Amino acid sequence: MASIIVEQITKSFGKQRAVDGVSFEVEKGELFGLLGPNGAGKTTSIRIMLDIFKPDSGSVSILGGPMSEAKKERIGYLPEERGLYQDVQLERALVYLCTLKGLTRSVAKTRVEEYMERFDLIAHRKKKIKELSKGMQQKAQLIVTLAHEPELVIIDEPFSALDPVNTQMVKDILREARAKGVTIVMCTHQMHQVEELCDRLVLINRGKTMLYGRLDEIRRQYAQPELIVRPVGGLPADVVGVSSAERLNGEYRLRLTASATPQDVLRDLVQRGVALEQFEIAMPTLDEIFIQVVQGQGELDG
Ligand SMILES: Nc1ncnc2c1ncn2[C@@H]1O[C@H](COP(=O)(O)OP(=O)(O)OP(=O)(O)O)[C@@H](O)[C@H]1O
């Protein structure tokens, strides 16, 4: 079942077309990546999804239909711009913001305390927001996003100000939420985080959908005919189906001829008695795919 259905949305600001016919669906309980370079239209798409902006055309169904006031309490949103009242003490600010999301004061207090423990903020509970570091403020905002236990979470750059320890903690929290059936849409430029966390993704560029689908399928689709092979000894010079071989730290990256398959190469190596520690099809990283797609569109558009 889909938690969000985005159909052919468009949005212009003056002559600038920020979103240009974007469609995708986010399944219930998945961790979905919303990706794209700066200015691609991600934040505008999120704002349309959350009914902050009306689209010029197209439609959005969220949690089974149009957005409503009641639904807002079932959603957690971490916006890109982190706006907390700077002069208020951390704990007071968090409890207050959680009551705005429908929690009673006493439940809000308990949850906030639990989350402050978990996020290692408890020692700072009496500090004003402006006295907290950037990373601490971001964790505080994540608490506001999550503490009312929303069924749908939309987070824009959740890791941007976090050190590796806090990044790991937030990733664990997101995985736990997913395991409980929470739907998560994550907008980020950090491709390795997407590779680690996301089931499916959409990549938009200049307002248009460039890639959409399962991460593993997208990587397979962009796989070059290359192998990574680690032989026990050396590699013969004339392996069947190999057009070039590059050696790096005992590992070879083999480029295949147009008609060869990985099986042809493996068969030849086995027949020649080459012992192998590793034999795998080289998969491109999401970073490489992102750059290829974005630069490719740039070249097409001139
Ligand atoms: N309120 C606005 N008024 C005018 N133009 C806007 C407004 N919001 C966004 N835009 C323009 O729309 C385009 C898409 O912006 P958007 O913020 O959606 O991109 P983004 O993918 O979130 O980028 P980033 O990764 O840099 O945050 C940009 O060209 C931007 O200048």
UniProtKB/TrEMBL annotation:
Residues 4-231 form the ABC transporter domain. The keyword Nucleotide-binding applies. PROSITE patterns: ABC_TRANSPORTER_1 (PS00211), ABC_TRANSPORTER_2 (PS50893). The keyword ATP-binding applies. GO terms for molecular function: ATP binding; ATP hydrolysis activity. InterPro entries: AAA+_ATPase (IPR003593), ABC_transporter-like_ATP-bd (IPR003439), ABC_transporter-like_CS (IPR017871), ABC_transporter_ATP-binding (IPR050763), DrrA1/2-like_C (IPR025302), P-loop_NTPase (IPR027417). Gene3D superfamilies: P-loop containing nucleotide triphosphate hydrolases. Keywords: ATP-binding, Nucleotide-binding, Transport. Belongs to the ABC transporter superfamily. This is Sodium ABC transporter. It comes from Levilinea saccharolytica.
